[in-house]
Amino acid sequence: MVKPKHWWDLPVNILGYVILIGATLMMVVPFIWMVTTSLKPSGSEFSYPPQLLPTSFDFSNYTDLFTLVPFGKYFLNTILVTFFTVSGQVIVCAMAAYGFSRLHFMGRDTIFLLYLATMMIPFQITLIPLFLIVFGLGWINTYQGLIIPGISSVFGIFLLRQSFQGIPQDYHDAARIDGATEWVIFTRIFLPLTGPALTTLAVFAFMGTWTDLLWPLLIARSQEMRTLELGLAYFNANTTAFRQTNWPMVMAAAVVVMLPVLIVYIFAQRYFVAGISLSGIKG
After folding, report:
1. pTM, full prediction
2. Tens of pLDDT along the chain (283 residues)?
C-alpha cells in the first residue's frame, strides 16, 4: 500500500470515497426500490415505516402485467421497431459517413457542415413537418411510420465519419491498387475496423428508440400499435382492469421496460467506451 505523502492526503481520500459512495447510493437506491416494490403485494407499498425489502415476494404483478394489459403486444412492437430502426440507422449512417470521409465530390465539406448544423435544431421544431410528411404518405398507425423517420441520425454520421477518418489512407490506396471497388473497401476494410464505433451508435440508437415516447404517441393511434413506453404512459387508462393506481404493477412494468436497456448497455459497455475514445482521435 502506498503511504500518503502528506498528512492531509488520507482524510481527503476518505472524504472522496464517502462522496462517491453517497452519489452511487443516490443513483442506485431508486432502482432497487423500483425492483423491490414490483415484488410487493398491492397496498403494502405505502406501509409505515417504509420497507426497502418486502416481507413476502409477490411475483403475480409480473403475470398480471401481461394478462390485464396487452403488455406482450407492446413488447413485441417495441422489439420490431427497435430492431429495424437500429439496423437501418447503422447502415444508413455508415454509408453516409464513408461518403463524407473518403469520397471526393464537389461541396463535400460544405454539405457536411450544413448537415451537421441541423443538430442545433430541436426535434420539436421539425416534429410538425415530419408528422405532415408521414401523414401524407399514409403511414399513421403503421410500423413504417414508427421506423423510417428514425433510420438516419446526424450524430451517428458524425460519429462514424470521425472513426473512418482515423483509418490510415494507405489501407484505402492499397485496396484500390488490388482492384477493390468502393463497396468492397467499405464492407471488408472500413466496417470491420470500426466495430467499436458501430457498436456505440447501435447502443445509442437502441436506447433512444426503446425509450422513445413522443413519436409513438403521435403515430400509434390504436392499442395494437403501442410501444412499451406508450403503453406505460397509458397504463392506468384501462379502468376495467383496476380502479386505482396499482403501484407494484406499475413498478413491474417499469422494470420490464428498463431491463433490456440495462442488459444491452452492460454487454456493450466495453465497445461503447472504446468507440467514444477512438472516434475522438482525429477531427
Report:
1. 0.81
2. 456 566 566 777 888 888 999 888 888 888 888 888 888 877 666 666 767 777 777 788 888 888 877 888 999 999 999 999 999 999 999 999 999 998 888 888 899 999 889 888 888 888 999 999 999 999 999 999 999 999 989 999 999 998 898 888 888 888 888 888 889 999 998 998 888 889 889 988 998 999 898 999 999 988 889 998 888 887 755 544 445 677 888 888 888 888 888 888 888 777 666 655 555 444 4
Which amino acid type is present at position 100?
A: F
Distance CA 282, CA 273 (A): 16
Grid coordinates in use for 47? Answer: 406501509
CA distance 275 to 144: 30
Tell whether 38 and 89 lie within a shared domain: no
Output the domain CATH number for residue 265: 1.10.3720.10
